[in-house]
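Question:
Now give any protein.
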Amino acid sequence: MESPVVYFKDLFSGRPRIKKAGDPSVSDITSRQRPFGVMVRKEVADHIRSWRFIVLLILIVLTFVGAMYVSLSNLKAAVSNENDPDRLFLYLKLLTATDGSLPPFHIFMSFLGALLGISLGFDAINAERNNGTLIRLLAQPVYRDNLLLAKFLSALVIVAVLFLSLSLLMIGGGLIITGVRIEGAEFFRILAFVILTVLYVGFWLSLAILLSVKFRQATTSALTAIGIWLFFTIFYRIVVNMIVRSVFPDPNFMTQGDIVFYNNVILDLLRLAPSQLYTDATTTLLMPSVRSLGPLTMEQMAGAIPSPLSVRESILIVWPQVSGLLAATAVCFALAYFWFMRREIRT
């Protein structure tokens, strides 16, 4: 990896510079080359050139192509289903329609998004420290917190560009194949899906950066982050079911009100997992007919018309999930900031 000090060459050296005719002034060059911007560009370049990002990029693109192929193969059957209130949302069906051979793309991203965030941040700080470049970098007249913010922001920029490009590719491919113009509601729902996916990856990125600040070895931070991901993905649901079944009686002997309370308790506990929050939010955004994320009684369903909701109403439904992901991301990044600012880096 190229030393980050190279990117600051002649920016703070203070050596006299011979100005030639037609050259911009030194103040113009300095204004265009802010230290924070230099660090962000350096981190973006390092991520793009790294093999782990290239491997994950290929994996995500192949997953996207596979999910789009399955969706296009079942698109005619999906839009001709008279019992489906979402059948008219053609471009949303490209992200949700499936025949069971492959999960939809947003289900895939609940797994691959976490791996992408972890891979971009598990060695953000400890690798610089072990390579001896952290001291040299902070010896320059830059703020220490700018380094941590540049690590986080550069990875988010790459993730945002990646998923926005895939979404535009999906829209363009759908326009070429079907010849149907995308509606404004579908475009805003897809845009909200991209923002939500970036936020979900950002949570795992902030957690990985937190572990890279906490642990000195990159392998330790990587294994810890993967362990947390595996716990919430596989074991957390099992633990919740065991605890709830040991506390509550058999649902077969409950009244209707007790069953609703029982299901709400299970859902509230499951929503402590980031993947559950992401799945609930994306399902509501990509399926406009979803009106609730919890159990409904027959009295609440009486008189309900199966029609799609507006974009605003769907966002209001998923706002608690979005707030939960934002809060978790902010807490992880704040802890990483606190520990990094108090960490002695010279030893």
User: Anything to note?
Assistant: Residues 11-17, 25-32 have pLDDT under 50 and may be disordered. The two ends are 22 Å apart (CA to CA). The chain has one domain: 26-292+306-342. The chain is about 70% helix and 0% strand.
